[in-house]
Amino acid sequence: MEKRDMLYEGKAKKVFKTDDPDLYVIEYKDDATAFNGQKRDQIAGKGELNNKISALFFELLRSKGLESHYVKRLSDREQLVRRVTIIPLEVVVRNIAAGSLAKRLGWEEGRELPRPVVEFYYKSDELGDPLINESHIAVLGVATPEQLDDITTQALKINEILTAYLRARNILLVDFKLEFGLDAEGRVLLADEISPDTCRFWDATTREKLDKDRFRRDLGGVEEAYEEVLHRLGGQ
Q1: Largest CA distance in the chain
Q2: 3-82 with 85-221: one CATH topology?
Q3: How do residues 87-96 score in pLDDT, each as one tens digit?
Q4: Transmembrane ranges (predicted)?
Q5: What tens digit of pLDDT does each residue of 34-55 get?
Q6: Residue 226 near residue 235 (C-beta atoms within 8 A)
Q7: Residue 83 in contact with residue 61, Cβ under 8 Å?
Q8: What is the pTM of this model?
Q9: pLDDT band at 231 (very low <50, low <70, confident <90, very high)
């Protein structure tokens, strides 16, 4: 497998073509962004940590029968993935009130939800990734009702698997963002990453934040928090 030209560079990753048209290489960057790119910095080692953490989660899900675009980890910063066409939706699953949900509901941060909440956001930098519902998705034509059902079912199953796995490691899965894509056969596959960049992780005992909120809220210790997550997952 030969890594070739860069296809795309996003906020946290670069995507490269390979000599196989159905396989890409993803390279994780140290760049950190928040508030739709308004806040930017670099965090030493973040790309390597996110790559390792994401790989561990993708491998866990695969062991439970849930496939994704992930094929294997190639190096400290690189993964080999299947080519998918990304569905322009950010799928957020919430277990505990935090961030924008706490503000919208008027709930104190940290209040446990009686059931998981699944939200959809339209992936559009120009529009600021707005919260949308199933009717909006139908009007926009970004996913069929069948695909949306598949996405929701997968998202809730992922939540069930990760919540139990992390709880055994004294980590609360507060909420997390997923992205999905369509492979060459039209199957809906989990894509992107699962890391402290895309999840809220709290220490189950102290409620200390172990995720990107440390960067968003200027709490410091971002790299140390990511390293702690990897350590608890057994990856370091």
Answers
A1: 52
A2: no
A3: 999 999 999 9
A4: none
A5: 877 678 888 989 999 999 999 9
A6: no
A7: no
A8: 0.95
A9: very high
Q: Name 32's bridge partners.
A: 41
Q: What is the rounded end-to-end Cα distance, in angstroms, of the chain? A: 27
Length of the chain (residues): 236
Buried residues in 159-196 as b, exposed as e (16+ CB within 10 A): bebbbebbeeeebbbbbbbbbbbbbeeeebbbbbbbbb
Backbone φ and ψ of 60, nearest 5°: -60, -50
Structure tokens at 73: 């980890």
**Could you give the CA distance from residue 172 to residue 111 in angstroms, rounded to a whole number?**
12
CATH fourth-level superfamily of 3-82: Phosphorylase Kinase; domain 1 (3.30.200.20)
For residue range 108-131, list pLDDT tens digits in order: 999 999 999 999 999 998 999 999
Domain 85-221: homologous superfamily in CATH: ATP-grasp fold, B domain (3.30.470.20)
Domain segments of the chain as ranges = 3-82, 85-221
**DSSP reduced 3-state for 80:** strand
Q: Is there a contact between 71 and 23 (Cβ–Cβ < 8 Å)? A: yes
* Alpha helices (runs of H) in the chain, residue ranges in sequence order: 46-63, 99-105, 134-140, 145-167, 213-216, 222-232
Q: Which two tokens stand for residue 127?
A: 């529009």
Averaged pLDDT score across all residues of the chain: 96
**CB under 8 Å to 216, separation ≥6 — which residues?**
34, 35, 39
CB 222 within 8 A of CB 214: yes
Contact between 175 and 97 (Cβ < 8 Å): no
- List 27's β-bridge partners, or say none: 14, 78
